[in-house]
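pinning this so it doesn't scroll away 📌
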Amino acid sequence: MSSESNVLDSDVEHVISSALQSASDVVYVLDPTPEIVVSLVEVAAESASPPTIRVLADKQLLKDVMDDFLVASNAADLVVSGTLELRVTAEPVENTLLVTNSSVVAVVSAGDQVAGLHTDDEAFVEGANDAYSEQFQEAEEFRLRTPAISAVRTSLEEDLGEAVRSDFDAVLGLLETVRSDGPGLDEVTISLLVAAKNDVLLYDVSKWGEDVGIASKATFSRTKTELEDLGLIETEKVPIDVGRPRLRLRLGDDRLHDADPDELVAAARDVLE
């Protein structure tokens, strides 16, 4: 055990970042906690040249973590680039392990502190790599249903305009989580509020959302009705040449039309939470 390489910190992200710095090629992450999965995604997304990260984790744990749009959309970007691979294991280990080509790190939590206990014993590291490489290859792939955040941003600007994309990014930047399984703002609600701030048609934003993979048109329509009932948005009929009129989205309070994203988020939270 190389004590000079051990890391003790109150921040799991720092421990993960320190462990990944020693990985020049591939790192296997075994049985991570939800906090470790989130930190892995954050650290890798911010790194200029991250290693390939191969995660073996409990299926339900991955589902729960990836219900957060912020985490899942960034993870999807990493999957597309080949940086992140997610697979399911039914064989938990005693502590979370990070196995690189040069070390094995056990991540241990004690109260409000986290330690990365490190060994670089050559034979042990080689054996761990062989064992977990084989286990990873045999494991079931975990498929993300959330679109990559880069695809969301690009399509949002192309389909609905730069102002909508800018407001969408600004709102995401103010939030710590974006989940559909609790109170608060989820990705569909955010899309509709930003669309309403920019007077976008419901048809256009719901078609964009379905095409990019955020949610179905039916989900957008249902959420629109809920937000309308709460007074957060309103609609205006716009006649078209053929067929039923389309609905233009507007914010329920005209004072929010020129509001900063933080004011829009605060107003929505007052109603939704």
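📌 and the second one:
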Amino acid sequence: MPETDFADMAAALEAVRDNPAPVLVVTHEWPDGDAVGSACGLCTLLRDNGFRAEFFLAAQMPDCYRPFLPFPSAEFTAEEINTKYSLVLNADASTVKRMQLGPAEFASITIPVITFDHHPDDEMFGTLTCLDPEASSTAELIYYFAVSQGWKISPLSATFLMLGVVTDTGCFKFTNTSAKSHRAAAALLELGADHDRIINEVYLSKPLNMVRFESELFSGIQTAFDGKFAWISVPRELLDKYDVNLRNTEQLIELVRGIQGVVVAALIKPTSNPGIYRVSMRSKDPEISVGRVARGLKGGGHEMAAGCSIFAKTQAEAAEVLLRHVRKEMNHEI
């Protein structure tokens, strides 16, 4: 059940329904399918149900999600947010550090900040938080909230919410898939969600340069612990060689996870800051928590899917740091 009852969230939103200042919808940095789907879904739901709403979406999203964006996004200073908007509605960002406000600092926001989220490590940093860690996605949680309020759900809103559900369940392959997830997906299809478009844009439209990049990248896969841990380090040189933007490497982790015998999969990527490497991790065993590994490295996420940043001189050193932490988890030393 949500940490904050739907009634509390409904009351907070109803309080600004007639406010001429719109709601500002935001999500987290490096947005994935659920971030895009839940944020855009919320914005369209609000607009379709009598609210004024705008949104800010980080520019680093993978190209496969860009065709779904229905309206432009702009950046705002904290002063502009405080004077122009009635409240900030955060979708899917579990921590202050991850929430994307452009150039604005969270500490400078004086208007209410309310959150819909499904991450178990949510910091509950806003004025109000609706948290359901058992939901497959924030989009699923928002769907059930909209239903509880009797809101109109247009085909566009349904498509956004379906995008979040489909991508965060890995097309219903991941362990977070539940009967509620399937019921939400079925209802969204009946409401006009464009499932075919989601599958084609996200999973069946890979550019040729990306295919060639992947074929060379995966020749460098590394394993440890009798093949139970596998990881790929993404070299900057290879990205440049095939003209691949880091934002389009989100799904590479699933190729590593799909290897037979692998229990923990990881992807180590460079960032724009020398000495900082971004790590994505997945687990196929509920007893092996990559969430604990990530939290041990000042990151976060779910127990089966998490991420962090590692400070190291080289990518090889970053891999060594990660290897030590994964070993502790696999040996149940954490």
